[in-house]
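Lecture 7 notes: from sequence to structure.

We start with a single chain of 274 residues. Read the sequence below before looking at the structure.
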Amino acid sequence: MAKEEASLRRARARSFVRDEESLDAFDVPAAVVCAICGQPDCAGCSPGGEDDSGVVTIVPWERPGGGVWMRLWSTARASTQGAESFFASLPDGELKPAVRFAILAETLAILSMLAVLAGMAALALPTLAIEILRDTELRSTLLRGVALSVPLLAAWMVVAHTTHGAILDVGARRQGARPQRRRAFRFGLYACGWDLMAGPLGAVLMLASKGRKAMFDLASLSMNVPGKASTAFLRGVYGLSAEKAAKVRKLGSIAALCLAILSGGVVVAIVFAV
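Now the structure, written as tokens:
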């Protein structure tokens, strides 16, 4: 009887080992997969609303539910304070949600900057500020100029960030990586969160929620975010080596500098146009 039980236990053990070996033959499922088809490289096959990318994603902005502000702020923080992990695992998906995020982030960043500049101008030129408040026509002209310039500048900043992402894609392909054009566009669009966090609104909110040290840390972090995010994106998404990623990042840095100079010209042109 004892021999039969021992033999049965050995048979069960051999069966368990075979089962484990058969499980090892399958790939571990990806952490980011389509909610419908289960494929990690799916751009979203859900027939649902256009707000949903169809991807179980790390991007807070694309998660269903939650308020607009909380999703916006969480995504902006993730793209800045957690830039390396965020962009290294940035999933593919629809462009529409990313475009909406970019436009909203840039608009808020520009409005907060204008508010600060207006306050500084009022302190430096109090007579002019009082005249604007008293003169209805002058005030209306100024408001029309702001209403026209803010959307134009926000649109330009979105285009500039998206162009930066596209240039990274071109550089990565030259290094032998597989094209990821749409994901590169998403990189540029979600990179607009940098401007929101680096602007006055981001500084004030960080001061109110995390304190003075966090605000100063954010200011210093913002200077290095583009380079770190680009490297993480190139290595995580395109699978480039550190050496190849550095070459592509250098190309992206040159392009970003050119876009920054061009952006200054666009700002001046908009100011004179309005």
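Residues 47 and 94 are 13 Å apart (CA to CA). Keep this in mind for problem set 3.
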